[in-house]
Amino acid sequence: MSNNQDNLETKLSDAKAVAGGMLSKNKHISASGTSAVEVAKTGSIKDLILWLLAAIVLIGATLVNQYLPGYWQPANDVWVRIGIIVALVVFALICLALTHQGRAFKILLRDAGVELRRVTWPGKDETFQYTWQVIVVIGIVGFFIWLLDNFFNWFVGIFIG
Questions:
Q1: HSE (CB half, 13 Å, CA atoms) of 149?
Q2: Predicted TM-score (pTM) of this structure
Q3: Could you tell me the residue ranges of all domains in the chain?
Q4: How far is CA 55 from CA 51, 58, 62, 128, in A?
Q5: Do residues 49 and 56 lie in contact, with contact meaning Cβ atoms separated by under 8 Å?
Q6: Diameter of the chain by CA atoms?
């Protein structure tokens, strides 16, 4: 019991220290030193050109299947069309990754990975216990809804006949 108490007190003091550190900061700064929001808000002509290029390429990818076989003989093969569509989508994603917003998305993914490593996952016993609690609550709520449904069917049946 004492060991569990010491462990809980340690976890509580760690949580308070982390919360105190979070409250003292005004902004969330990522591991790279700049926030994803700051990076995403910046823009340039290069970003505009890359966004337009990506949009044009994605629109072209949607039209490849319908129009390209009429202009280019090798495009009659379905695998050639699939390859062209995949290449166009990959090119558009690369264009988007080169924008400031794409860089911000990469920062966001990196920060999400850091946060996922901090998660304390429940053990087997906790998972089993919570699963049974959820099943019991679902059964109780389902029974209550079934009772309400029968009551309202009976009540409406009185008026309808």
A1: 6
A2: 0.53
A3: 35-119, 123-161
A4: 6, 5, 11, 48
A5: no
A6: 79
Please give the Cα distance from 108 to 36 (Å, whole number): 6
Amino acid, single-letter form, for residue 43: G
Give the closest residue to 99 by CA, choosing from 157, 27, 147, 51. Answer: 51
Q: How far is it, in rounded angstroms, from Cα 34 to Cα 37?
A: 8
Quote the mean pLDDT of the chain.
Answer: 85
Question: CA–CA distance from 119 to each of 58, 65, 100, 115, 147 (Å)?
Answer: 37, 45, 29, 7, 40
Name the pLDDT band for 24 (thresholds 50, 70, 90).
very low
Give the integer Cα–Cα distance in Å for 84 and 146: 54
Q: What is the DSSP string of 123-137?
A: -HHHHHHHHHHHHHH
Express as a percent the part of the chain with pLDDT over 90. 52
